[in-house]
Write a structure and sequence with these properties.
This is FAD-binding oxidoreductase. This protein is an alpha/beta fold. Helix content is 29%, strand content 26%. The chain starts with a strand and ends in a 10-residue tail after the last helix.
Length: 400
């Protein structure tokens, strides 16, 4: 292993590997790239434990555009990531998102978001209760006032498939991967000069990228820097229905969408089962090694879904797990780009549950900053580190 690289990336899951892919795919970048990953199994990575979905239904234009690029990239992923004739299949299930609103405040948010989404060409429609019922006959709509439905461009896909595709292609294009743990970061004034590994090796670098997920603050602290990111636990549950409503929709070839109930509970088809989760009533930071599901949340999920559909009254729990959001406590949005003073320390952190879907656009953006000193395609400056310094949240109203 070399002892010097132009770019060192801390974290080898989907974000770090996306940055490595876009760097090594760019003919204008001729430097060396090293990705350092502490856990080669990725068993507890946010990537591996994610519900792995993508949407364009956000309130901020840049988040809509990030989602739109992600959709296009995922659709073309097999061809783009081909290595030696192997084309990774992400099994992209374009089932759409269905946001349901039952209060005046929720309706207003959906309408405002819709104007932004439509202005950018997102394939999203607003439906009245009778239209919701006509499209998805199993739903009870008496309490609903409005819904926002993504007719295309949204759905779910293979989480590890996305990560492994990026990793394999980046390696084929010349990136090096190292299984080790960064225990120290060397800094000389306003520049990062290298990293110290648990194995004892020191590797110098020209640029350092923090792609360490929920451990982002721990990584930044090694360089004497701060980032408001902490691990927040999210529990996911897979259940079976005595009488499944999948196939009953009158749109999208009978396929059901990922539905977000006004209560905050969501569910979507997952093969012959359903995947579900809900916003925690209490949402503290957790230990980096705490992956015990909050089993009590399933009772709330069951109650919410049974009220929404008779089909969900008789369900049986099949599987469950917990993963971590890399939660940005300032505004629940990604932080992408350089530190305001230590310019060769770049953040790709705080995705707050949107890391998989935002990895293509953010990976590309970080690679552009490294190569050109600026964002060239999507301008990610709104979600840069400067807002952290100013303590000015970049608020997103469509957070699940």
């Amino acid at each position: 292993m070399r002892d010097s690289y132009d770019v060192v990336i801390i974290g080898g899951a989907v974000i770090g590997s996306a940055v490595a892919y876009f760097l090594t795919a760019n003919p204008d970048f001729d430097g060396s790239v090293l990705i350092i990953e502490r856990d080669p199994t990725f068993a507890q990575a946010s990537t591996s434990l994610s519900s792995s979905a993508i949407r364009n239904q956000f309130s901020n234009p840049i988040n809509v555009q990030i989602g739109q690029f992600g959709t296009k990239f995922i659709r073309e992923f097999a061809d783009t990531m081909e290595v030696d004739g192997d084309k990774p299949d992400l099994s992209f299930h374009e089932g759409g998102y269905l946001f349901l609103a039952s209060t005046g405040e929720q309706v207003q948010i959906l309408r405002e978001n819709h104007e932004v989404q439509k202005s950018l060409g997102a394939d999203v429609v607003l439906w009245e209760p009778d239209q919701i019922k006509a499209a998805f006959p199993h739903l009870r709509v008496d309490d609903l006032q409005l819904a926002s439905y993504g007719q295309s461009g949204e759905g779910w896909f293979s989480n590890t498939g996305l990560m492994n595709g990026f990793r394999k292609k980046a390696r084929a294009q010349g990136a090096d991967y190292l299984i080790d743990e960064v225990v120290g970061i060397n800094r000389d004034g306003d520049r990062i000069t290298g990293v110290v590994l648990k194995s004892g090796q020191t590797i110098t670098c020209g640029t350092l990228v923090n792609a360490s997920g929920p451990r982002a603050a721990q990584t930044a602290a090694m360089a004497g820097l701060n980032v408001p990111v902490e691990p927040r636990k999210r529990s996911l549950f897979v259940f079976d229905c005595a009488k499944t409503p999948e196939g009953t929709a009158t749109v999208n070839n009978g396929r059901l969408p990922l539905m977000i109930d006004p209560s905050g509970t969501f569910c979507r088809p997952e093969g012959k089962y359903f995947l579900s989760g809900t916003a925690p009533a209490d949402d503290p930071a957790v230990d980096w090694d705490d992956f015990e599901p909050r089993h009590e949340e399933f009772e709330r999920i069951w109650m919410d879904l049974a009220e929404r559909s008779e089909a969900f009254e008789a369900i049986k729990l099949i599987n469950f797990w917990a993963g971590h959001y890399a939660f940005n406590t300032l505004d629940h949005n990604v932080i992408a780009g350089p530190h305001n003073e230590v310019k060769n320390f770049l953040f790709a952190n705080g995705f707050s549950g949107h890391g998989l879907q935002q990895s293509p656009a953010v990976g590309r953006g970080i690679s552009e900053w490294i190569t050109y000193g600026a964002f060239r395609t999507l301008d990610l400056s709104e979600i840069g580190y400067d807002r952290i310094v100013r303590n000015e949240p970049f608020l997103e109203k469509a957070v699940i």
